[in-house]
Amino acid sequence: MNNFFTTLTFLFITYFSVSQSYESKIDSIVAISYNQNEPGISILVAKEGASIYSKSFGKANLELNIPLQKSSVFQIGSITKQFTAVSILMLAEQGKLNIEDNIGKYIPEYVEIGKDITIHNLLNHTSGIKNRTPVGDKGFISKTNMSPTELIAYFKDEPLEFKPGERFKYSNAGYIILGRIIEIVSGQPYSDFIEQHIFDKIGMKNSSCGDTKQGIPNPTKGYIIEQNDFVKSDDINLSLAYSAGAILSTTEDLLKWQNALLSNTLLKASSIKQAMTPTSLNSGKRVPYGYGFRFSKLGNSPVIAHTGSTKGFTSIALFLPKEKLYITALTNCNCKNVNNVAKQVAELFVSIPDDKITEAKHNQPERKSINVPSEILSDYTGTYEVKPNVNLTIGLDNTNQLYLLAPGQTKKVELFAETQNHFFVKIVDAEITFNKNEANNVISLTMNQSGRKIIAKKN
C-alpha cells in the first residue's frame, strides 16, 4: 500500500517564479498536495465558459495502477444539491408547484410537523428539520439500499430544531424531502428526472444519478487514510445519499452544467437569480446560502460555490462572476484539502486588494527566530529517508543558514529556529523538529505542514 507522504515537493512548489504561465502555476499548486502515485484529483478551470485548463493527477485505482483521466467519474456529494434545487425551480416554472407551498401538501408525514415549512425553507436550509440521515449515523451499514420513503421515515419523527425561517442550519434531510417532492410532482423517479431533463438535455454523457447506470465508464475508486496509508473506502449505496448527494460526474460535465445555468438553457434568468441570491431569515438577517449555492468572497471578488463529500471522495465547484471564472476539482480521497487547492488556483486570477493583504499580514503573528550555534546546526545536516530511495537533504551554507532541499528540487528553502531543535519555514506554513535519541544523536526529523506530518529517518 502506498504511503500517504510519498513526496515532499508540496513544500517548495509555491516558491516558483512569478514568470510561470497559468498552466505551470496551476500545475505547481496542484502538485503541492497531489502526485502521480497516490489517489488524485481532476481539476478544470474555465474562463468565460471555455476550458483553459483541464488535467488529472494521481491514480483512479491504486491496486490496478489505473491513472486518473479528464473523463474519470467521481462521486460529487453535495454538489448534487444544485441539481435538486434547479429541478424544483424547473417544476415551479412549469406551474407544477410553488416554492411557497407547505411541504405537507406533498409529503404526508409532514402534514402536521411541516405545516409551517415551505419548499423555500428546504431549499435554503431554514426548515428546522434535523440533519439526520442513515449515511451520517454511526454503525449504519453503508451498502444498505433504501427507497426515498424509507429515507424520510428514518428522520420524520425528529422534532424541529427551530421554527422555519428563524435560523440557517444545513440539512441533508431537507434535500431528501425535495427529491421526493420532485418524484411526486413529476411522476418520475428522481434519477430519471435528472437524467432526462438535465443530463440528456445538456449533454452530460458521463454523469449519472446514484447507482442507476451499470458499467459506468472510467469509474474512480475512493480512498481514506489509516495509519498513514491509503485504504479503499467502503462502498456506499448511493440510494442513501439520494437527492442530497448521489450524483456522479466529471469536471468536463460540470462545466456543461455551469454553462447551462448561465445561458438559461434550463431555467429563466429570474429563476437562476433567485437560486443564486443569499437567503433572508424571518428577522431580515442575510445568510450566505441560496438554493444549492453558497456565497463568499475572495478579495473583492464574489464567489458562488458548493462543496461535496462522500466516503472516499471530496469535491468543489466555484464560480467567480466578476472574473467569469469557473473552477471544479474532484478528488478520490477525503484526506486532503481540495477546497484550498481550488482557492489558490482562483487567486491566480483575482486581484487581492493591498489593504486585504496588509490586513492579513497584520493579523498573522510574526514568528521570532533565534540564533543557533553552528556546531548544533551541523548535527542536523545530512540526508533523511522519507521512503526507500526518496531522501531530503538538510544543509548549512557559509552564512550559518540551515536549509532544506526536497527530492528532485533545486530550490533551497531556509529554515528558521524557534528553539535549538524546532524550525519553521517562512514561505509556507511548515515546521520541522529534529529528534534525538538518549545518546543525544540526531535520528530523525518530523515535518508538519498544515496538520500533515512526515517523519523521516536520518541516514
TrEMBL record:
Residues of the Beta-lactamase-related domain: 35-336
Q: Output the InterPro entries linked to this UniProt entry.
A: AmpC-like (IPR050491), Beta-lactam-related (IPR001466), Beta-lactam/transpept-like (IPR012338), Peptidase_S12_Pab87-rel_C (IPR021860)
Q: What is the lineage of its organism?
A: Bacteria, Pseudomonadati, Bacteroidota, Flavobacteriia, Flavobacteriales
Q: Which Gene3D superfamilies match?
A: DD-peptidase/beta-lactamase superfamily
Mind telling me what this protein is named? Serine hydrolase
Provide the Peptidase S12 Pab87-related C-terminal domain boundaries: 367-448
Listed GO MF terms? hydrolase activity
Highest taxon of the lineage = Bacteria
Q: Which UniProt keywords apply?
A: Hydrolase
Which PANTHER family does this entry report, sorted A to Z?
BETA-LACTAMASE-RELATED DOMAIN-CONTAINING PROTEIN, D-ALANYL-D-ALANINE-CARBOXYPEPTIDASE/ENDOPEPTIDASE AMPH
